[in-house]
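FIELD: query
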Amino acid sequence: MKSRKWSSRSRPSGFTLIELLVVIAIIAVLIALLLPAVQSAREAARRAQCTNNLKQLGLAVANYESSTSSYPQCYPQRAIWDPQNSSGTAGDSGWGNWSIHAYVLPYMDGGPIYANLNFSISASDNCDNATQATSIGTRVNSFLCPSSPLPVGNMYGCFCPPVQPYSSIRFPGNNYWGSVGASVLPWFSGRPPGLFSIMSTTSSTAIGVRDVQDGTSNTIAFGEWRMGDYNSSQLSIQDAIDILKNQIGNFGSWNNGATSSMPSAGMPAFTTFLQTCQGAAPASTQGGSNWKTNKSLLGRDWQVGMFGHTLGTTLLAPNPQYYNCNMESWGGDFDAPGMYNLSSYHPGGANAAFADGSVRFIKSSTALNVIWALGSKAGGDIVSSDAY
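FIELD: result
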């Protein structure tokens, strides 16, 4: 018998179109499943770095207090830089004052920057001819949250008059503010409700750890905020809406410092204050002078000791539905009473450094009386950690 040989065509190597489509679909599904996890991991890493930055600030302030027996305050340098006022008792509201951040630089590996600052003149944007522009234009990574966009624009327009050689120096940015507590007033002649303030005179009473009667682990030293969008024609939740300084008298005695036991007469006034800010927001972006009514430069620098630059308030929980608020009679800058809240790009809340150097996450759902209590250093209103 003859064996029959079967002939067959050899199958070509490679995928068919259907097989290729199936593989692509499987890869797409895997990417869709993994992408949120990757993004979540990246945000976790950024939040960890933000926590570390605040911890450095908290420890730096604690070490400063340990070395000097007092916390740094924002003092006016007006007696030095203004020849018309040589008394040394200038009640300045912040324009030209040096910040807490500048004072603690040596305690957080910022010694070289600190050494190049000239503290005998005012801070950068107060007509000092940009003498220290190179140093104050340095971006300090410890002052920047990696989850936040960097500031846009340069410091050219901050000097009086503008100084050409420094036209390319960018805004350094600052995501972390020193707490004045639950108050709209940044300056005090005595002891402020929070850990920091603008002292109305250079002879004001110094504040030390002895004055933190609620305990350093119960008092916020620094909080984080979203930097401004640098666009006064665009309404963003981190903008500071100007409602005129003369309206401060319409909101009751709470403005000197809210406490966890807000009197019944004070809460309606505070609510009116919030609604006034909110109601003024839509029109704030209109007109050629909207930079006065819609202040969008929040956190543009770290060297100026003033609201909107390096000082903030603990009046509302993080990421509130209300805009920040400024009460400046002529518009202008942030050197006026105001409200600058905790905010962040972290979901669910924002980080805060306490006076003992610890860092904790404050939830957006935190009650008003709790956030007020955390901002006060001697209110006798200690709260448990599970309350925020």
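FIELD: remark
The radius of gyration is 26 Å.
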